[in-house]
Amino acid sequence: MADTPAGRYGIEIRNLSKIFGPNAAAMVPLVEQGITKAELNERHAHVLGLRNIDISMPAGGIQVIMGLSGSGKSTLIRHINRLIDPTAGEILVGGEDVVKMSPAELREFRRHKTAMVFQKFALLPHRSVLENTVYGLEVQGLSREKQVEAAMRWIERVGLSGYESHYPNQLSGGMQQRVGLARALTNDAPILLMDEAFSALDPLIRTDMQTVLLDIQKEIRKTIVFITHDLDEALRLGDRIAILRDGEVVQQGTSQDIVLRPADDYVESFVKEVNRGRVVQVEAVMTPLEPGAAPGGTTVAAGVTIEEAIRTIVTGEDTDIAVIDKGGAVLGTVNLRQLAAALVTAEGPAQ
User: Fold this and answer.
1) Strand pairing class (240-245; 248-253)
2) Looking at the predicted structure, is the pLDDT value of residue 328 above 90?
3) CATH of the domain at 236
């Protein structure tokens, strides 16, 4: 189901607010009027989790929600499958408001439309790799044959062939998270919720898991909501990124939007140490050409990073190269000076 356009679901979060406390609904007008998180706590003994969140998550893409501890990112992802009920707002999945679902509808939604990968793996210690992986299909009531067939496919896909009979305590952290990912994928839900899924892993294993996820996403094109506090991870994984602070969205857009046009000092503090060469694409710095122009020489494809374009120039003979689209049409030209200038921030060259 999830491999076809009809089987994918976009997510629309509209005017979503969450207030923790005994009289949360009465606090909504104060939140809408702009009371700060600190003031709400000091004056009314209520905690502001989220304020007026509006995010559109297209079907089949990776939406990263990023922020520091306490920003509200984990609270937000738990609203999508209604592990937390909002104080106000809508959560539309495929056009259906999750907030209005009955208990029976919500159970079906959780079983068939969403799957979750947790930071702490959440594996059942008494179950083998295979038995952990088939768990969601067991709950759905599928036949044992179909359970095993689906599970073995994803166990192999995440690189765990030969470990089917092992138990979680026999696996490394990275291998345990691969089991968690295989379990979520075996469920074949069109929406994958990943809450700090790689944060507990060592840096090299974390990078490896990011690669596994990106490779699999090319095939499955699920709607993935990925929570992280790490900007490098956000920039690598996210088709779109939303940055939260104190329960509010301070900026959202593509990785290039975030890096090139930080909305405020808070976002700029995140991006100032980013290696722009690995994020910014050549279209952002090229000189556009008039339609029909066709300069010869070396070319690079639209979408390549500045770093890749610099490598093309320094290993070739041309100082100016053409940027072409998928059909081979020339979009513009770029030279080494332009590329090098794009690496420079207000603080100096990117590291």
Assistant:
1) antiparallel
2) no
3) 3.40.50.300
